[in-house]
Write a structure and sequence with these properties.
By secondary structure, the chain is an all-alpha fold. The protein has one domain. The chain has five helices and two strands, in the order βαααααβ. Strands 1-2 form a two-stranded parallel sheet.
Length: about 140
Amino acid sequence: MKVIKTRIRVGRFIFLTLTTLFTICILVQVYLAGMAVFGNPRVWVKHIIFVHLFGFNLPILMIIFAVVGSMPRWAYWNTFGIFVSTFLMYFTANINAILPWMGPIHPVLAILLFVLPCSIIIKTWGLINNNRKVRY
C-alpha cells in the first residue's frame, strides 16, 4: 500500500467534498427548474441566481484542490468537462432567441452535469480509500 502525504490526502478530501457539493447544487437547480415549470414561474429568478453562486466557482476550486491533492489526469479532464458543460448551459439558455433548436439541449446538459460529477465522486472515493496510510 502506498504512503501519501497529509497535504495530498486533505486536497483529495476537499476535492471530493466540492464535487459532492456541486452535485447537490445541480439537483437543487433541477428542482428549481421543475418548480418554475410546474408550479410558480417566479421561481425562474431563483434558478437563474442560484447558478451564479456555484456554476463556475466550484469547478475552479475543484481544479485548485485537484492540484493540491495530486489527483490523476482524469480528475482534471472531468473537472474541465464540468466547466465546459456549465458554459454550454449558459449558452443554451441565452441563445434560444437566435437558435431555437439549442434550447432543448439545456436539460440534456443538466443530465450530463449530474452524471459527470457522480462519476468523479465514485473514482475519487476509490482513490481516497485505496490510500489509507499517511506520511506526516
